[in-house]
Write a structure and sequence with these properties.
By secondary structure, the chain is an alpha/beta fold. It has one domain (about 10-215): Rossmann fold, CATH 3.40.50.150. Helix content is about 40%, strand content about 20%. The chain contains eight helices and seven strands, in the order H-H-H-E-H-E-H-E-H-E-H-E-H-E-E. The chain has helices spanning about 10-15, 25-35, 45-60, 75-80, 95-105, 120-125, 145-155, 180-195; strands at about 65, 85-90, 115-120, 135-140, 155-165, 200-205, 210-215. It has a seven-stranded mixed β-sheet with strand order 3-2-1-4-5-7-6, sandwiched between helices. Helix 4 links the parallel strand 1 (about 65) and strand 2. The chain starts with 8 loop residues before the first helix and ends with a strand.
Length: about 220
């Protein structure tokens, strides 16, 4: 029986060195976020950038919705993988970080593919009319994950992908002594997805954990 390999920081660097090379502007975002202190935890991991890139390429995805953008690393990773006629709508309520993200999108010459909407995501989600997406990426307010997920099911095409970040919650989901509201919420959300017959799902141990749901 095979066992999972424990990924140390050194091994992760080796993996990154022998994987798809980052776009220079992706690296600029990483360098920028490294100066922000603890809040940089809101960005996706490099391995997740590569995963999103591969999923989009092999699935022929063209229309994507992102819920939670921060300074734009995941959005740029998605946009770079999209075809020239692909489109990404990125939702975030933070005007300041959105401005930073827009500057990076322009620098990478990807701003023609990306539309940002600055308001609470649930409000934006309720305003979409007759619009369907091939993929939806959720990486926002953890306490609203179930609400984002349910709204996403209304907006995703049949056979489309809903990808949710932070589902392993720094490994706290398995700590039975940790009962803070965020950990409890992620545990309950994961159980909800497991029992949801509308999708088939897998958890990938990339970054802080990603659940990929294929809508049936």
């Amino acid at each position: 029986m095979g066992t999972n390999l424990e990924i140390s920081d050194k091994l992760q660097k080796y993996i990154n060195d022998f994987s798809l090379k980052l776009n220079p502007v992706q690296q600029e975002i990483l360098d920028y976020n490294n100066k922000l202190g603890d809040i940089k935890r809101m960005q996706v991991a490099i391995s997740q950038c590569h995963f999103l890139h591969l999923i989009i390429k092999i699935s022929g995805i063209k229309d994507v919705l992102e819920i939670g953008t921060f300074t734009g690393l995941s959005a740029l990773s998605i946009s770079l993988a999209l075809p020239n006629d692909g489109k990404l709508i990125a939702l975030d309520k933070n005007q300041e970080t959105n401005k930073v993200a827009l500057d990076f999108f322009k620098k990478a010459k990807q701003d023609h593919k990306i539309k940002t909407i600055i308001k609470p995501a649930l409000q934006s989600l309720s305003e979409f009319k007759d619009q369907k997406f091939d993929m939806i990426f959720i990486d926002a307010d953890k306490m609203n994950y179930k609400n984002y997920y349910e709204k996403s099911l209304e907006l995703i095409k049949k056979g489309g992908l809903i990808i949710i970040d932070n589902v392993l919650w720094h490994g706290e989901v398995i700590d039975e002594k940790n009962n803070d509201k965020f950990t409890i919420n992620i545990r309950e959300f994961n159980k909800f997805i497991l029992e949801d017959k509308r999708v088939e799902q897998l958890i990938f141990p990339l970054g802080d954990g990603m659940t990929v749901c294929r809508v049936l």
